[in-house]
Structure formats: C-alpha cells, structure tokens
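Hello,

Our lab assistant flagged a job as stuck in the queue for most of the afternoon. It eventually completed. Since we weren't sure the result was trustworthy after the delay, we are filing this so someone can double-check. Below is the sequence as submitted and the structure that was eventually returned. Let us know if re-running is recommended.
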Amino acid sequence: MPAAPARARTLWASWASGRSITELRWLAAILALAFVLRLIWVLYAMREPQGVHDPTFYWGYGQAIAAGVGYQLPAVDAISAGPTAYYPVGYSAALGAVFALVTHTPIPDNLELTAGFFQIFLGVATVAFVYELGRRLFNPAVGLLAAAWLAVFPNLIFHTAAFLTETLFMFIVMAALLVLLAHDWRERPPTLTRLAVFGFLLGASALVRPISLLFLLLVPAVWLVARVGWQRALLDTGAVLIVVVAVIAPWSIRNFIQMDSLVIISTNLGDNLCIGHHEDAPGNFALPLSCFSPDAYADIDRAEFEVRRNNDNIERAVNYAVRHPVAELKLLSRKAYHLWEHDHDGLSAVEAYGDDPFMNDTLRTALERIADVFFFVTISLGGLGLAGLLRPPDARRLYFLLALLALAGIPLVFFGDARFHVPVMPLLVVPAAWVVVQLATRLRERYVS
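-- returned structure --
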C-alpha cells in the first residue's frame, strides 16, 4: 500500500523539478480561475437539452447506455427505432459512464449537474495540458500565458454546459499531443510505450470525432523530416496504427453485428459530405432534398436505412465534387466564411438553438460580442504566431503545427459551421501566446537597455 503514495510523490517531484515556486503558483491560480469560471457557467446554464438537435441525441444515447439498453434510438416509429451508428459513440459512451455512476452510487441523481462537473474537469485538465505543451515547445512564459488564455476563453466556457462533443474531444486530443510531444525528440525518438499511449488516445479521440485520425498520417511525414529514417518512420507509424485499430475494432465489430454492414465508426459521414457537395450547397448546414429525401428509404429498418443513405450520400458527394471542380473551389470560400464567422455557438447550444431561451437579450448580446472579439484577437495573433512553430527547425513544433492545420482545415471537406473550429482553439492559443511573449520580451529589452 505505501508504494502507491511514494510513487505519486516521486512523480510529482520529477514533474515539479525545474519549475520555480512562482511558476507553480501562477499555474495553480490559472487552473483555479478556469475551474471557477466554468463552475459558475455550469450552475447557471446547464440544463436538459430540448428540441431535435445533436445535444438531445447525445443526452438520450447516454441515458440508454447507462440503463444497459445500448446504443440505439427510441422506438418512435419504424424509421427511427432500433440500433444506430449515426454518431460516433465516444461522447455518448462517456456520458453513459457518468450517468451510470450517478444512478448506481449515492451521488444525487442530477444528471445535468453531474455531466457539468465532468465537463468542468475536462476543461480544466485541457488548460493544464496546454500549459505543459506551451512550456515544452517554447518556455514557461508561453505555457502559462497560453493556459491563462484558454482558462478565460469565452466559447470554451460556454461549451462546458453544452451536451456536445467538443469538450471531451479537446481533452483527449491535447492529452494525445502532450504524450507525443512532451519528450524532446532531439535526445531520442519517442519510445514504443509513448507511441502506444499516443495511439490509444488517438483511437479514443476518433471514437468521439474521427477527424483526429489525420494525425496518424502526420507521423511518418514528420519522422522523415526529423531524419530518423524511413524504416523507423514506417515501424513507428505501424505501431501507432495497431493500437488505434485495437481501440476502434470492438466498436466496428459491434456495428458489423448490429448494422449488418461494415461501419468502422459511424454512418453520418455520407450526410456530412452531401451537405457540403451538391448543386445548391450554401457552404453551411442545410438539409437538401437531394441528400435527405423523406421517401427514398421507406419501409426499411433503422440499420439498413442508415447504411444505405450513408453509402448513397458518399457516392453523391464524390460524384458532384469530381464533376464540378470549379464550383467546388467557389464553395471553399463560403465554407471558410461560415467556419470562422463567429465564436459564440456554445451560447446557441445551451439554449437548444432557440428552443429553450433563458438569457435576456442584453446578456446574450453582450456575451456574443465578448466571445467574438476574444476569438478574432486570438486567431489574428495565433496566425502570426504560426511562424514561431517553424523556427528554429524542430520536429515536435512541426508536428504541432500540422496537427493545428489539420484540425482547422478538415471541416472544409464537409461544410462550414462555427462549431467545427472550436477544437483547434487549444492549439491556436499557444502560438498566440508566443507572439505576446516575444513582443513583451523585445519591449522590455528595448526600454531596459
């Protein structure tokens, strides 16, 4: 028994070594601030989702999983009843675990508030991960400023009270990047154990939002830039891939059994592609009849309906993109606009996209403006700071940069929505903080000298 506390003290001493008391105090204050702001918002805004929107489905799936029913839609009618694979299971499974904990323990049965505390933990931990990444990639000042930046980031605070995937996804992605990038590759390449943990976290993140699988492709590219040799690059990539497959495979097997088709993660890929690739595509969310005809799949069960529409919509989207390259180029600008037009989608989510308004207009407008100003300052400074990830040449910084660009760019494959840029914000605050630290350093040197 005494071995565990002793090991914990050893790990703490190892982590704290090299950090001044002042730095640790600043970090503690930042984490406390992140906690308090998220707690206040959760106590004010966390409530059961209303209407027919993504949060309502996540909420329902989480309750079904906690009750032992499994991942399926309620038996409302013939087309909606039965097993489903429409959304990636990760976030719903996490909610199911939280709900089951509440149901089967003396913890008060307040599912909304319990989920809120769960997401507070995720948000505060993400702030800590950003501190560590900023410190490892640059210096303690960048790490602390990036953490403080994220701690007060308005839309990320708003998302803490929303039943959406972003808070969990950001937590897992930043944990994965920290595992991979914390070690200085100039001393030696990452160990097999480190790569395995990275692969596990990458697989887990893909079960929340599969876009993170693009990180796998970055491994061999950056390894070759780091000049570790193509054999080592292939072996390390293969090791990560094996672990990722091992994490995802049980869910894929479940889908094969329940959906009677090979569904690796989910069946909403086709819908998301078709929304962004059709003749009248506006560049943002829409439900065109060409993709969502109400009569196209009548009189079939839910599983077959999902699989057939997913496959058909993938084919429609690909055919349109191949046959209309000029229109696709024009669509990119509209998608980019809708992707980056504002940063207050978390407010819409907690109010059930208009179905459950509880804020007065003055408060809502003020919060929207604060969030948007904060966002535009962040992306402006963060964009300038991308240069800091390229000089001096550093393979770890290059991987971080490519991961940032991947998260920022992959939504353009589908359609533009302000929600889709949220996961890149914890990465973008690091180069933004680097710009501010660089400016402060130069000003101090100029006026002190």
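-- support follow-up --
The delay was a queue issue, not a problem with the job. The result is valid. Residues 230-259 form the longest helix (30 residues). The chain has 18 helices and two strands.
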